[in-house]
Write a structure and sequence with these properties.
This protein is of the alpha/beta class. It has nine helices and ten strands.
């Protein structure tokens, strides 16, 4: 866990509302993520967790409120949205790798084409990042030749290649076979230890309790409870949070 103290805010959400047609999916969401902080968002399926991340990254618009990344307002129709996406990388549930490109090419595409980095520099760092996520020997492998856990680790290396200020993780382990979950969580744990600002939507409650600084429990687009992760996830105060955790953590 990071010892950031009263660090500056990196991401601010103020009274954010989001509609899909008549469906009011985010209902006044307000939260602050400080630099170096790990915040986990938990809640039942369909509660709006992933939509919040997509709004922060400008993949979805929002109808009311403000989202600020390092003081810049997120507006997906603005020309500045590209700059915000460079500062805030996203790791998706289903990897979203280019199937016709090798692991190394997937990692280096963004720096070369978006940031205009020299190719040799991008490739050298790409190899370093693949080594960091435990895939040094898989640089030339195509996604179809990799397990789901390996593909997700390539996706994390790709996010890191953009040298972001923060990374959003959208249920990064939910598409994985259970035995592959640990290898992805281990990489995320090391990022947290290195002080990376992270917002993680996850059902991995034990991971959230151990690694996150704060947890936010959301239900039907509303924050029900938030606070230090260990407190919210081990000793929740709200009946709805208690019920959710009982269902998620019940023995099989």
């Amino acid at each position: 866990m990071s010892g950031h103290g009263e660090a500056q805010s990196m991401i601010e959400l103020v009274d954010v509302h989001k509609f899909f047609g008549a469906n009011h999916v985010i209902r006044g969401f307000s939260a602050t993520v400080r630099k170096g902080e790990v915040v986990c968002i938990v809640g039942p399926s369909g509660s709006g967790k992933s939509t919040i991340l997509r709004c922060v990254n400008g993949l979805e618009s929002y109808e009311k409120g403000d989202i600020l990344v390092e003081g810049a307002r997120v507006d997906r129709s603005s020309r500045s949205i590209g700059l915000i996406r460079r500062r805030v990388s996203m790791v998706f549930q289903r990897f979203n790798l280019f199937p016709h490109r090798t692991a190394l090419e997937n990692v280096t595409q963004g720096p070369i084409w978006v940031k205009k980095e020299p190719a040799d520099q991008a490739v050298a760092r790409g190899r370093e990042l693949l080594a960091r996520v435990g895939l040094k020997d898989k640089a030339d492998a195509f996604p179809a030749e990799l397990s789901g856990g390996q593909q997700q680790r390539v996706a994390i290396a790709r996010a890191l290649a953009m040298q972001p200020d923060a990374i959003l993780f959208d249920e990064p382990t939910s598409a994985l076979d259970p035995e592959l979950v640990g290898e992805v969580l281990a990489v995320m744990r090391s990022l947290a230890e290195d002080g990376m600002t992270m917002v993680v939507v996850t059902h991995e409650i034990a991971f959230a309790r151990e690694v996150a600084d704060r947890a936010i429990f959301i239900d039907e687009g509303v924050i029900v409870e938030q606070g230090p992760a260990a407190a919210v996830l081990s000793d929740p105060q709200h009946a709805r949070t208690k019920d959710f955790l009982r269902r998620v953590l019940r023995p099989i």
